[in-house]
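Note to self: the last two entries modelled the partners one at a time, which told us nothing about the interface. This time every component goes in together.
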Amino acid sequence: NAGVTQTPKFRVLKTGQSMTLLCAQDMNHEYMYWYRQDPGMGLRLIHYSVGEGTTAKGEVPDGYNVSRLKKQNFLLGLESAAPSQTSVYFCASSYKGLNTEAFFGQGTRLTVV
Amino acid sequence: SQQGEEDPQALSIQEGENATMNCSYKTSINNLQWYRQNSGRGLVHLILIRSNEREKHSGRLRVTLDTSKKSSSLLITASRAADTASYFCATNDMRFGAGTRLTVKP
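The predicted structure of the combined assembly is written out below.
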């Protein structure tokens, strides 16, 4: 099993460019999450999904959009990248939100110049 | 705002010593989870404690939960250099604190 796979692993964007980060899980999990982690800080929840076709805002949703068209995939989009979005992005999934552990991808390091 | 807040921010100990880190949270919870993150990598789940549990063990890990104080602690006994990592708590809404950076010196 691959678990949670994030694509790409590294990316450099110019300010104003757009991109999509892909998260794929093969565990048939209902819940999926996108986080960002900045130096010396914990993970901040951007958006999450409790099932196919659903999305919800987390703590820091501004500047990001998400889609969950298929149960196994959760896409994070940056429409117009800003230097403040330079960060490491982590995706996670869990069977259900309550009382179950989450599995994390290995992260995407994004630099916006 | 972040739900869990870990304390201390950083902890440095010698191999063989015990390491204790704490987590405080703000609202009622169904469970609390602890995760570990090795530098630059994704988080790995360590242990989950439910709101009706007071203590839980897993190998060298011991977690306690005090819902009246809205706090939890993670104890790592007989630490090893390989335990060097950041440790995070998360409440059931999957919001994390800033973590405790643990360094275990050989």
